[in-house]
Amino acid sequence: MANIIDYIRWRGDLDFRQSAINEVDSLLFSELAYLNFSEIAESCEGILLSDAAREYFDKERDKFSNNGDLYKEEYIAMLRAMAASKRFGSVRLANYVQKKDEQRSMQFAAMTCELDTGEIYVAYRGTDDTLLGWKEDFLMAVMRPVPSQTEALHYLMHIAKAYPARKLYLGGHSKGGNLAVFAAVHVVPRIQLQIVMIYNHDGPGFKESLISKKEYQAVQGRIHTTVPQSSVVGMLLEHGDNYTVIKSNVKGARQHDGLTWEVCGPMFVRMEAVTKESRIANRTIRTVIGQMNDEQLAQFTESLFEVLSADKNKTITDIRTDGPKAVRAMLQTYDSLSREQRKALQTIALNMLQEGFHNMHREKRLERVQNKE
Asked: What is the DSSP letter of 248?
């Protein structure tokens, strides 16, 4: 079945005046935001995507950066295909920003994509391979807002001022989708009126307290959420809107990768519901987190990432590449934690296992009942 790169080759000869922006285009712009366009697309005037790609490859950008798995053949193939197409090659990339702040536990990046129609797509980067980015994701359950959400709002306000009266599309993959929704909810009503659609591609939701606000209700009908059938990240917290379940060509947690999502025409291939494994995982996580207060969650997060960052690990790839060496370093760091920190980690791990087994048995009971019917 076709994926988003196949879509570029099929749809690439039609510009956005001939065929309006759709959910697959949105995912492509969201994935594009993962790439490093610093010193290429930072200006307000911007640069054509075709030219930006040429500079990107000339500089061998990202190849030697510490972004782990983000530099992979599929992303390179995507960028080459987009640059060579009529549809995407003439898109103007601009206002690229990238910020990392370990003191604030923040990983943030965004850029604008100006279509030939004059419409603007604001693309927020999701969680990259860095431990810093994953730590901020964990803090979403504790901090309101997390630093990248505040940055996302400020970025949208800046873009709306730079492109007055333009139609705005917002979106992102993973955490980027969450940032897009957060910015749309909290921006002033005047700018909300410019927003046509907000795309959340397998990004976490929000606490119920935000979903119930009138500011959220004002944009709810324009939020389009897509999750793969084995989604975990995209099912976290609450979504006030109806989400669309789509098909991936891989199994399990790897489905979070948008490059694996199946495409038919200008749409993703639909599925009826998420899988049993997705329901079990998300019910387990929600229950365990719901039993903890903010102080306990914060202590767990700090302790967990102190262990993961052992031996100066910066990315998930660092841990996997170092293998046994990384495991030994993490065990040593774990032993050096205070008694309270070790207890916090042990308690969460045990609760996850117990709740997981409970939910597995719950699903089996439901299956038996359904089979009898």
From this structure: B
CA distance 225 to 211: 14
- The structure tokens 């940032």 sit at 179
Distance in Å from the first CA to the final CA of the chain: 34
- AA identity, residue 191: I
pTM for this entry: 0.87
> pLDDT tens, 214-226?
999 999 999 999 9
E strand or H helix that includes residue 123: strand 120-124
Instruction: Give domain limits for the chain.
Output: 4-274, 292-372
200 bridge partner residues: 172, 225
d(CA 241, CA 224): 8
**278-305 burial code (b ≥16 CB/10 A, e <16):** bbbbbbbbbbbbeebeeeebbbbbbbbb
Amino acid occupying residue 36: N
* Helices assigned H by DSSP within 3-72: 4-11, 23-32, 49-58
Q: At what angle do helices 147-162 and 175-186 cross, to 10 degrees?
A: 60
According to CATH, the topology of domain 4-274 is Rossmann fold (3.40.50)
Query: Count of CB atoms within 10 A of residue 90's CB?
Result: 15
Residue 75's SS3 state is helix
The pLDDT, as a whole number, for residue 143 is: 65
